[in-house]
Amino acid sequence: MKGKKILSAVLFLGLAALTFYVIFKNQDIDELLVAIRHMHKGYLLLAALTAVFFVSAEGVLIWYLLKAIGDKVRFLGCLKYAFIGFFYSGITPSATGGQPMQLYHMSKDGHKIGNSTVVLMSVATAYKLILVLMGIGVCIFWWSGLCGHLGEYLPIYFLGLFLNAALVVALLAIMFNGPGMERFLCRAEKRLVKMHLLKASDTRQESIHKMIEQYRSTVDFLKSHAGTIGFLLGFTFLQRCAVFVLTYFVYRGMGLSGANPVAIMALQAVVYIAVDMLPLPGSQGITELMYVAVFGKIFTGSSLTVSMCISRGLNFYMPLIASAVVAAWSWWRKSKG
Predict the structure, then answer these.
(1) CA 150 to chain CA centroid, nearest Å
(2) Cβ atoms 270, 294 nearer than 8 A
(3) How far is 114 from 112, CA to CA, in rounded Å?
(4) Of residues 67 and 192, which shows the higher confidence score?
(5) Is 73 helix (H, G, I), strand (E, B) or coil?
(6) Quick check: pTM over 0.85?
């Protein structure tokens, strides 16, 4: 486990270094810094706040769902889970490390595994579902603009849309098939015992059964509360829009005007959909490549690189650093305890 974390961190740092080299090798760094210093501070602040809201919104949803199912929970604790999830998602391929680490910390804080699993899966499913619906909406209502801005990168977009849609289907199938999940976990437990990765236990199968029963009761509760699901989907939509409108704030902050704000948000959604499921830590490299390809007609000349550095710095690297601090603090608190 520790070796995998180190490998993910090394891969992430290597991709980040390569990405920065490719971006800046033919750029005048002083010119970039001057352009950043001359940005409108109000729009820069708005962009930063939307990035913070994007990560914090997941904490709000975790808090809301845990409260809805009757679990005692602290709001600040849920914000902690959101930032921990963002950090581990950012440094692992296809963002696979976020939810396991969130589940670990929630379990250590006394939350039931069944409840926590359903809540995290509900948040993840809503997140992907809204992204897919937005992607389909862009195809239906803005096909000409999509083709005009993406060009030869259109297949990458459709690949990302397909992978996200497939994951939504898989998550829904898992959520609503409790017996199937129980069979899978029991078989996995037996296999791990045979591989001597787990010690044989007479009570573990019973523990799995109890957890699945708790899981199924939580799913049934959510299915019977349409208002809770409605809030989850609506707030997730706002969360998604926040990170998309960030690029528009950067656009205005650089003193630019004339472009349709909805078009800029749609293009940023296209970038996210295209790279979200690719097996690269933090979608390093491909995100910047897609940004340059998609926004070349919106940000012209040197403003394209400047806008990419600012947007990527605010919507990924800034919250990643903050999340790393939260994750380190949480580990330190648990080690002291």
Answers:
(1) 23
(2) yes
(3) 6
(4) 67
(5) coil
(6) no
What does 163-212 look like in DSSP terms, one character per residue? HHHHHHHHHHHHHT-HHHHHHHHHHHHHHHHHTTSS---SSHHHHHHHHH
Residues 48 and 272: their CA atoms lie apart, in Å, by: 18
Question: Cα(first)–Cα(last) distance of the chain, in Å?
Answer: 22
Query: 106 in helix, strand or coil?
Result: helix
Sequence-separated (6 or more) residues with CB below 8 Å from residue 134: 240, 269, 273
- Digit-coded pLDDT (tens) for 91-113: 777 667 788 889 888 988 888 88
Contact 86, 323 (CB under 8 A): yes
In which residue are the tokens 């996210």 written? Answer: 272
Task: Inform me whether the pLDDT recorded for 13 exceeds 80.
Answer: no
**Contact by Cβ (8 Å): 239, 53:** yes
Task: Judge contact between 175 and 118, C-beta under 8 A.
Answer: yes
The alpha carbons of the chain give a radius of gyration, in whole angstroms, of 21
Amino acid at 11: L
With contact defined as beta carbons under 8 Å apart, do 132 and 233 qualify? no
For residue 235, the model assigns a pLDDT of 96
Tens of pLDDT, residues 131-148: 999 999 999 999 998 998
Distance between CA atoms of residues 235 and 238, nearest Å: 5
Total Cβ atoms within 10 A of residue 103: 19
Question: What residues have CB less than 8 Å from 208, skipping those under 6 apart?
Answer: 182, 185, 186, 189
- Tokens coding 314: 């605010």
Q: Are 284 and 19 in contact (CB under 8 A)?
A: yes
